[in-house]
Write a structure and sequence with these properties.
globular, 0% strand
Length: 216
Amino acid sequence: MNYFHPESRAVRVVDQLLDLLLVGILLGAPLIFYTRGHDVFEFNKLTVVRALSSLAGVLFLGKLLFVRPLALTRNALDLPVVAWLMVCLVATVHTVNWRLSVHGVYEDFEGITTWVNYVFLFYLAGQHVRSERQIRLVLGTVALAGTAMASTACCRTSASTSSPGIPTPIPRPACSRPWATPIFWRPIASCPCPSPSPSSWTCPSASAPTRPFARC
């Protein structure tokens, strides 16, 4: 079987694509959100991270299979991270709610699929980011994403405080939303869920019975 040399043109193109995918993940995770959907932040960000990570995984797997010689580096965190991931896998197998352990809670997505994704990105960065140019690219992307987030937050804060036409947000009563929190974490509701009209956001009297795990 004919293998590709690490300095061949095809491998250089794959390396450039991996650089772009890492930059896309670093920029997409903090900056992407979709206001027209039901979930503005978590689902959209995680979808972008998983999609770009899947493409990066295919390219890196191609390098492992078809590039020779391919030098792989090791660091002191390899064994601790692998051991932690194995503990997560064992806990996922021996779980009360298998689906929740795999996918996680809605709006958090802290299941085993997300942890595997993070571990892959950790090892991908360790194996791929080696040259000074790549290190500068990663650090510059992180600085750019942080600057963009901070600038956006400052602009929105200054606009909301200086514009008299923007109404003050009305505090809502403590009421759990069933699509955001699983039922076993949902507290006992002391107020009804807020309706579209702010005038109806009233709590029942102390003598009125409360409904445990009330649904909207």
